[in-house]
Amino acid sequence: MTGQPMYAAVCAGAAAWLVLERGRGTRRARLLFADPGSAGAGEARSALERWSWRGWAPLLRGRREWLCLVVAVALALLGRSVLPLLAGACAVPLVGRRLRAAARARERERRADAVIALCGALAGELRAGWQPGQALRWAAGTTGALGGEEAAVLAAARFGGDVPEALRKAAREGGADGLVGLAACWKVAVDGGAGFAAGLDRLEAALRERRDQRERLRAQLAGAWATVAVLALLPVVGLAMGWALGADPLRVLFHTPAGLGCLAVGGLLEAAGLWWAARVVRSGEEP
């Protein structure tokens, strides 16, 4: 009798899958046998794309934190308890925040690489005989390093505005702090007649050295992050060993007073340990 809820959930999921596949088969048949030039064929094709994996993939890529809720539902069915559902609901915003922070970090790195490419392209065009404003317009269009301030910077370069100030405004975006050096080079070259291309070469070399130093430091800390991941997976290994020995660890954890106490204390210790280990590793990543 204890396995009836789980069997019922599995049967309900199988029935929903069959109904969905039947609907997909009908839509596929309409698409295959419809007139290619008719409006019905276009509607059927659009419906088929919406219900296919390609239609759902963009939604899943943007909301990967909801996979925590899927895992929580599976654990709730296996352990016949609502505690995994509560934990999954609490984990969704936390994981979403972490994923968004990782996306912002990747965007900062992409922008930093674009600034390095901008300096190299701009120096090359200046040596080819182009004026600074023309070279900046071409290099900015190919690298995309100026971000949302690209129009303002290019307008200042085209109509004789304050290009260094526009570059400093563009440098406020994440990862674009190298544009401050570009603004300084531009100001010195315009006011003092110094070699603009030579200054850009030195700036590019400095930015590349800083990026390489950051990558070397990240490679050295990869082992520490692997240790944190192993520590995070140890509870899962313990549950798997319990199942292998013929025990029912989820029943003990979710349906006995001693198990609930161990679950609460172990969860707090696990969260505190992961937070502390991640904090130590991140402090080593700071320049």
From TrEMBL:
Signal peptide: none annotated. Keywords: Cell membrane, Membrane, Transmembrane, Transmembrane helix. InterPro entries: T2SS_GspF_dom (IPR018076). Residues 120-241 form the Type II secretion system protein GspF domain. The chain crosses the membrane at residues 69-96, 221-246, 258-278. It is a multi-pass membrane protein. It comes from the Bacteria. Pfam families: T2SSF. GO terms for cellular component: plasma membrane. It is found in: Cell membrane. The keyword Transmembrane applies. PANTHER family: CONSERVED TRANSMEMBRANE PROTEIN-RELATED, INTEGRAL MEMBRANE PROTEIN-RELATED. This is Type II secretion system protein GspF domain-containing protein. It comes from Streptomyces ficellus. The lineage of its organism: Bacteria, Bacillati, Actinomycetota, Actinomycetes, Kitasatosporales.
